[in-house]
Amino acid sequence: GENVEQHPSTLSVQEGDSAVIKCTYSDSASNYFPWYKQELGKGPQLIIDIRSNVGEKKDQRIAVTLNKTAKHFSLHITETQPEDSAVYFCAAYVQNFVFGPGTRLSVLP
Amino acid sequence: ETGVTQTPRHLVMGMTNKKSLKCEQHLGHNAMYWYKQSAKKPLELMFVYNFKEQTENNSVPSRFSPECPNSSHLFLHLHTLQPEDSALYLCASSQDDRNTGELFFGEGSRLTVL
User: Are the beta carbons of A97 and B45 separated by less than 8 Å?
Assistant: First the structure.
């Protein structure tokens, strides 16, 4: 079955800097790759997603890139703000969603 | 507010108790899910229901028993649980279980088994 790895597990950045989180997947049939943000005491919430026919997608300060050949995709957050502090999960979908283990992002003021 | 409501938010139970978790979605979706979230582990899919029919049981022990009376409601009945079952249980919904669209999560039910 599908296996999703995610790195790093924790990430601390200074406010205003960029943050990058990387994920790899194993099943080449996976065709949809969402990113979820989970704040303390809340459930995960979708922040951006990308489908297998697209290489890059951007939404304001957030972007996702996909390399199907290498089977990896990345989340890029620019101009980080304290409210970006949360746990971020990547996922890959083939028949069901398979999630990565998460990255705890801390944005230091 | 994601449109997916879970109750209770916190639950403490003994190993011999029977309790239930409830999930309700107001999004008109047809698929509902139970996930288990444990510390430092990926979200684990437990069950999937599509149009009230169970389409996925991810080798979950029988001490967890799901029920989906309609497309808007999902329950997880708990009995004779073990301390290692302590976790955050997340309910989610989506348009259907074949659509690679967005999963909408509730805020979870934090379960502690003593």
Answer: yes
